[in-house]
Amino acid sequence: MKIRCEYYAGPELKFLANLDMMHMMERALRRAEIPYALSEGFNPHIKLSMGTVLPVGLWGQNEYFDLELAKRVAPEWFVMQLNAVLPPYIRVKQAREIDSHEPALMKTINAACYAFIIQGVPLTEIIQRMEHLMQKPNLEVKSRGKKKDVVKDLKAGIYKIEVKGQEDSVIINLTVAIGEPVNIRFDELKDLLLEAGIEERNITDIYRQANYVKIMEDYMTPLEKVI
Predict the structure, then answer these.
(1) pLDDT exceeding 90 applies to what percent of the chain?
(2) N or C: which end of the chain has fewer CB within 10 A?
């Protein structure tokens, strides 16, 4: 049996590396007595696949992992068992059985929404800055990936920009392409906002709001994709 889970990783985990996140989840699976499947060979490991890497410095509202089980269990039982042993700042929100031949999350997820929390700048001013930004023919920043000397044009990979007020702050949601052939990083988006005139001191938080499977103009979560 193969199961796909959606989970929340709170701000307390924003500086946890991806490998550390995986080790924490593996320890929780053992403590919860989940009947996970093991790989073969001299050094067997839990058949756990953590979706797209959550960058260090970010927390995630809707993250995903796939797990292969040695026997069939009810997804509701799985969620209850795992949440009983996980720290309070990480929670499995839902789980669903998927086909064993379902493509890996890394190959499936091709879009993500990053949220930037802005304080000290009026909503109307941010809306104007974002409108002006998207009217530009090119949105060039220096790559934050392996080729740091390369200038990237993010224009084609930015699908949506939504700006909304929330209490004493403003949230900028940027839905962008990730993976291949276009991969836009959150720190490249931050550089873009800084070039648009938003000062770094006004950016008080950044998190990944969602991961998507984008097909044409439709956006589905990795769980919706396998229904």
Answers:
(1) 81
(2) C
